[in-house]
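<goal> How does this chain fold?
<sample>
Here is the protein in question

***
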Amino acid sequence: MRQFQELSNILKNISRLSIGVVGDFCVDAYWDIDSRSKELSLETGKPTIAVRGQRYSLGGAGNVGTNLAALDVRRTFAFGVTTDDVYGREMLRQMRSFKIHVGGLVGQNKGWETPVYAKPYRGSVEQNRMDFGRFNRLSRTSEKKLIATLRDGVSTVDAVIVNQQLPQSIFTRAVIRALNDLAEKHPKKIFLVDSRHRIPDFRSMICKLNAIEAAALFGKKVRQNELVSATQLCRYAERFFKQFRKPVFITRGRLGLLLFDGNGAVEIPALKVAGAIDP
């Protein structure tokens, strides 16, 4: 009963907070393919692919923003890069619909495309995904503007969530160094990092990663989170704690997560969810 009361208090207090999200803001595109509609292209003579329906949602750091909106956070501020293409405009429209403040997004129209995960579906089966924005390059001008925006913006929020999703993204060495400096400069402010490729480069932040990512950093290749034992994860978490000096969360899929806070490790079970889910 005490734990439920603590959770209730946390959720209640969230509505008073302002949270900054720094990261790779993406769009998830879902295209429903109709295999029954067959037509040849007059120009090429090749079969066409008919899309019966399409829908779009925020992905990457944008998904973090929508989750914060669902938790009824008072204000959410986005820090990253955007560009004026069709998907970028849709991304901004959706962010505003969730009342995410987009003033911290730096515009770059050359050398940058909105990152999109395009997922064609035949029935309920996802086909080969198509990715946009894999070859983005942050310009020096954008890098300087983003760092300046971060330094100004951090003082206005209660917590910062860092979400690194793409290999080619906003997280240059200079940006990561600036974030580390800000985390050290504001030790009482919550900084949490969820980094897919750059976790060894961050410092002084609460660290969140999954079991596969943790194992890979120690030279172990596994296919599923559940295949990494709790004993192994404890060793990994202890190493990460020495680097970050902050709590470490390692998610384990259906097995929940492991939390290490410097005094020991705790296994926290997952909630059981019926039916198919999209993590």
The mean pLDDT is 92. Helices lie at 2-14, 61-70, 86-97, 140-153, 173-185, 211-217, 230-244.
